């Protein structure tokens, strides 16, 4: 096993697959192009020397135009190579970005369904897209610039000795000072401050998103931004960190950096003035002026190169955040497919001493839960909010896997059933079952792609959706979500029920959740429920006790434990939690009826 931590860029490059080599080729071309682009400066030096030697007989300097053409040829070939280099790095970068997206999505496809509850699909896509975009800039541009700048500095060192080392050193000194100033902002304890500053920025962005999501609540309750404590604190924290970072860390080094980046002359001119008398005295003034011209022109490219390093180093920082984002997606848990899948032997559902704790949670959401739903029976899960009803139901279609104990379908642990077989066996209708932005036909057919139009229609009728189809302009083919075709919560739920009915699975896991249904919808939904559950094994999360009276078995879950189980008659007779809930429920119904009567 390799223990050493791989460089972030190397890890990102692995995503380039077969095009990884193109990155290296691109970088090599960029290095050569940088060398070629230096040559014109040497030509300028040669031309200047010839001119000065010939002065004032300028026409005697015959090689000047030759040098001009050579410079031109070098410059053009430099540009062509740079272009070719960027082409290579871009091809590799595009492949990397597309592989990051593909591999991320492929990985997420294997994640348990529950993963998508806590990681909205938009968030996952956002993470992958941002990572892919950052990687693109880094691999396509920044790396080439970094290599180019390194080559530039190395060639500056060579040129320093090639012409006049003293003037070369003067140019280099300015560059060195600005690089030191730049890195002093990023290294040591400043790196920690920089990280804190970026973390504060991230927190502020997140709190901002939460705030925007909460705007409806803010408007309804007439609150101000100050009511969003977390957002306000995030802004204040960011502003104090930003101020501290700018004032105490960046002010001096950044000023030094900019001064010396733009002012390589600062040292060059005094050094030249110092050297001039000597050059005059020993008759080498022409060479001296040529050297000076060379360095004066050459120093201008130093500032461009330094600016590129600035961008490139921020690109390198992006690499680690991009990698972090990719890893968040790639580290999502995956459902292990069984190596020797077994087929369920019946439609029985059984929980055997099941415990489950959510990732990052301290207390279990379910502990030692055991119950059986015989084929064709309806089992209702009842209990206070947070009792574990949804969690228990989610374990059957493997939204999550039990932490200990076993959830069995037809006598086989769900983890040992081929996921496709399990999905064929179980239909589930949960509160957040979403409809796609597609036609009603496609939405219903999602559960059984080979179903005919007639079968879809029959399912919709069984789910009491006739009124919905009648009012939609294109009936079955109406696109949901397009202008004017938004469905109410209750209507969406009926379409979701039609989808489950079409699936015709022998086991149904459903969340009664009629919370948002209006009375008209509610009657229809109850009818649809009746069709869906007839003759099947049903595990139902019940919110209102009126719907559980007829259940074969009622399981009362409180704080993850089964506190009671039995039929309605048994439980009301035993005088426990269910009996108390039943009394309260009846009182509430009575109260509602009385107050409605009084209102009449
Ligand atoms: P119920 O459906 O009875 O209201 P749940 O099954 O939703 O109860 O919740 C049981 C417990 O698990 C609660 O304490 C809840 O806070 C916790 N819980 C539910 N979903 C998650 C989740 N995705 N991550 C962490 N904890 C969760």
TrEMBL record:
Q: Which PROSITE patterns match?
A: ABC_TM1F, ABC_TRANSPORTER_1, ABC_TRANSPORTER_2
Q: Domain ABC transmembrane type-1 spans what residues?
A: 24-238
Q: How does it sit in the membrane?
A: Multi-pass membrane protein
GO cellular component term of the entry, any: plasma membrane
Q: Which residues form the ABC transporter domain?
A: 349-584
Entry's transmembrane regions: 21-47, 67-93, 143-161, 167-186, 264-286, 292-311
Q: The organism sits in which domain of life?
A: Bacteria
Q: Sorted alphabetically, which keywords does the UniProt record give?
A: ATP-binding, Cell membrane, Membrane, Nucleotide-binding, Transmembrane, Transmembrane helix, Transport
Example GO molecular function term? Answer: ATPase-coupled lipid transmembrane transporter activity
Q: Give the main localization category.
A: membrane
Subcellular location, record wording: Cell membrane
- Give the matching PANTHER family: ABC TRANSPORTER, ATP-BINDING TRANSMEMBRANE PROTEIN, ATP-BINDING CASSETTE SUB-FAMILY B
Q: What is this protein called?
A: ABC transporter ATP-binding protein
- Which species does this protein come from? Faecalibacterium taiwanense
């Amino acid at each position: 096993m390799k223990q050493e931590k791989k460089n972030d860029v190397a890890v990102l490059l692995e995503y380039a697959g077969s095009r990884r080599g193109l990155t290296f080729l691109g970088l090599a071309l960029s290095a050569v192009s940088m060398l070629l682009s230096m040559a014109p400066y040497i030509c300028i030096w040669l031309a200047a020397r010839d001119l000065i030697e010939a002065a004032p007989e300028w026409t005697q300097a015959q090689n000047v135009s030759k040098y001009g053409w050579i410079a031109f040829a070098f410059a053009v070939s430099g540009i062509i190579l740079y272009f070719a280099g960027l082409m290579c790095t871009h091809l590799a970068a595009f492949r990397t970005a597309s592989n990051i997206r593909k591999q991320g999505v492929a990985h997420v496809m294997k994640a348990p369904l529950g993963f998508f509850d806590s990681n909205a699909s938009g968030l996952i896509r956002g993470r992958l897209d941002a990572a892919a975009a950052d990687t693109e800039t880094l691999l396509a541009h920044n790396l080439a610039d970094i290599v180019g700048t390194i080559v530039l500095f190395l060639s500056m060192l060579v040129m320093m000795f090639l012409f006049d080392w003293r003037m070369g050193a003067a140019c280099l000194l300015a560059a060195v000072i600005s690089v030191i100033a730049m890195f002093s902002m990023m290294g040591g304890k400043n790196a920690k401050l920089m990280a804190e500053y970026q973390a504060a920025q991230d927190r502020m962005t997140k709190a901002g998103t939460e705030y925007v999501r909460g705007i409806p609540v803010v408007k309804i309750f007439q609150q101000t931004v100050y009511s969003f404590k977390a957002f306000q604190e995030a802004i204040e924290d960011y502003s104090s960190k930003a101020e501290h970072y700018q004032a105490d860390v960046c002010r001096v080094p950044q000023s030094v950096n900019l001064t010396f980046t733009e002012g390589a002359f600062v040292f060059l001119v005094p050094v030249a003035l110092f050297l001039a008398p000597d050059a005059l005295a020993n008759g080498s003034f022409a060479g001296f002026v040529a050297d000076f011209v060379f360095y004066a022109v050459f120093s201008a490219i130093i500032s461009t190169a330094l600016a590129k390093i600035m961008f490139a180093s921020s690109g390198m920082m992006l690499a680690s955040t991009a990698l972090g984002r990719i890893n968040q997606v790639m580290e999502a848990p995956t459902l292990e497919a069984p190596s020797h899948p077994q087929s369920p032997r019946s439609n029985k559902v059984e929980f055997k001493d099941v415990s489950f704790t959510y990732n990052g949670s301290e207390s279990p959401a379910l502990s030692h839960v055991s119950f059986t739903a015989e084929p064709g029976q309806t089992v209702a899960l009842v209990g206070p909010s947070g009792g574990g009803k949804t969690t228990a139901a989610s374990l059957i279609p493997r939204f999550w896997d039990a932490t200990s104990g076993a959830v069995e379908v037809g006598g086989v642990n769900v983890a040992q059933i081929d996921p496709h077989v399990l999905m064929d066996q179980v239909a589930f209708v949960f509160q957040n079952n979403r409809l796609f932005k597609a036609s009603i036909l496609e939405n219903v057919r999602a559960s059984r792609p080979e179903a005919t139009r007639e079968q879809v229609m029959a399912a919709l009728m069984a789910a009491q959706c006739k009124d919905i189809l009648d009012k939609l302009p294109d009936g079955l083919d109406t696109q949901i979500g397009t202008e004017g075709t938004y469905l109410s919560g209750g209507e969406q739920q009926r379409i979701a029920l039609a989808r489950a009915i079409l699936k015709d699975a022998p086991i149904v896991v459903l969340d009664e959740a009629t919370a948002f249904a209006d009375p008209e919808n509610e009657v229809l939904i109850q009818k649809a429920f009746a069709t869906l559950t007839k003759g099947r094994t049903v595990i139902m999360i019940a919110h209102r006790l009126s719907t559980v009276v007829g259940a074969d078995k009622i399981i009362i879950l409180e704080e993850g434990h089964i506190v009671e189980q039995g039929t309605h008659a048994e439980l009301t007779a035993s005088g426990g939690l269910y009996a108390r809930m039943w009394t309260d429920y009846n009182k509430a119904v009575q109260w509602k009826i009385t107050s409605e009567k009084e209102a009449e």
